[in-house]
Design a protein that fits this description.
The chain is about 40% helix and about 25% strand. The protein is α/β, with parallel strands linked by helices and about 300 residues long. It folds into three domains: about 5-85, Arc Repressor Mutant, subunit A; about 90-165 and about 270-300, Periplasmic binding protein-like II (D-Maltodextrin-Binding Protein, domain 2), CATH 3.40.190.10; about 165-270, D-Maltodextrin-Binding Protein, domain 2, CATH 3.40.190. The strands form three sheets. Strands 3, 4, 5, 6, 9, 10 and 11 form a seven-stranded mixed beta sheet that branches. Strands 1-2 form a two-stranded antiparallel ribbon. Strand 1 and strand 2 (about 55-60) form a beta hairpin. One of its GO terms (biological process) is regulation of DNA-templated transcription initiation.
């Protein structure tokens, strides 16, 4: 088993750039630091440093061990901060990654239970591609990731996917565009300008299949990874766009559009993805327990 005191001495020397400089910073004798690093190398069965002239430089393995040590001691500092924050009554950080295909209004609905907790929370939201967010989740830079699909099986991340809810999908258009359509829904979509979610959106394929099943072939004029950008184009009258019916009233109010109809068989689902260690975070538990349509957590360990 790794001796974390020895690992900390290795980390200090690597960050300082040498034993003498680390000795000056830590107040420990150079011989003590060298002995601790030698003991760690014996335990691990690898060389962490090599001589380059009069300097010590990290080996390739040493670089890898340093990366792990940086994360270990960063998490240790984070733990101390979290405990002191809780004891002092300050807001507990809740770091959330939101996949760029998840509508902002949906993200708010899903995160609302964490805001209502008696323990004060300070939400830090990051938006990005799902794979980028899962990378940050894997190294504990995020507490949870909100996505429109479970953790992909090809991702080298141990995690749990918690289904928070789902909604049928409706189609929206400006009053002017709506007035120009012919026929009843969904036939009115045939030949009409249509905006679609990008290829990364889980709902895209079911939508296309639904249109095909109804023998409706709209004219695709735009594809968007960012759902907010798609709605902005829809608000400008560029085309009809789909959105979760769960937030239809807000979509109509915010973007000045009308709901044309609902594809009831197309369901847009939303998930909270977390690593096992983070299941203890009170905000993660709150949003998982409050999901409108709960399901069992799925362990997606590769």
């Amino acid at each position: 088993m790794i001796n974390f005191k020895q690992l900390h001495h290795f980390w200090s020397v690597a960050r300082a750039g040498g034993v003498v400089r680390a000795s000056e910073r830590t107040g420990l004798a150079p011989q003590t630091l060298s002995g601790q690093i030698a003991a760690l190398e014996t335990t691990l069965g690898v060389n962490l440093f090599r001589r380059q002239g009069r300097r010590l430089v990290l080996t390739e393995t040493g670089d890898m061990v340093l990366d792990y040590a940086e994360e270990i001691f960063r998490l240790g500092t984070e733990l101390e901060d979290a405990l002191s924050t809780r004891s002092a009554g300050r807001a507990l950080p809740f770091r959330v990654g939101v996949s760029d295909v998840v509508p902002k209004a949906i993200a708010y609905v899903l995160l609302a239970p964490s805001i209502a907790l008696p323990e004060p929370m300070r939400i830090v939201c990051r938006e990005n591609k799902l794979d980028q967010l899962l990378g940050e989740l894997a190294v504990h830079k995020l507490d949870v990731v909100l996505a429109d699909s479970p953790l992909p099986p090809h991702m080298d991340v141990r995690g749990f996917s918690h289904k928070l809810g789902e909604s049928p999908v409706s189609f929206f258009a400006t009053p002017a565009l709506s007035a120009s359509l012919k026929g009843a829904f969904p036939a009115c979509l045939h030949g009409a300008p249509m905006l679609l979610p990008g290829a990364d959106a889980a709902v895209r394929r079911p939508l296309l299949r639904w249109l095909e099943d109804h023998k409706v072939h709209p004219r695709i004029v735009g594809e968007f990874d960012d759902s907010a950008l798609m709605k902005a184009f829809g608000e400008a009258g560029v085309g009809i766009f789909p959105s979760a019916d769960l937030i239809s009233d807000e979509v109509c109010r915010q973007h000045g559009v009308q709901r044309l109809g609902t594809a009831d068989s197309v369901r847009e689902s939303f998930y909270a993805i977390s690593v096992e260690r983070r299941l203890t975070h009170p905000a993660v538990r709150a949003i998982s327990n409050a999901g409108p349509m709960q399901s069992d957590s799925t362990d997606t360990t590769p």
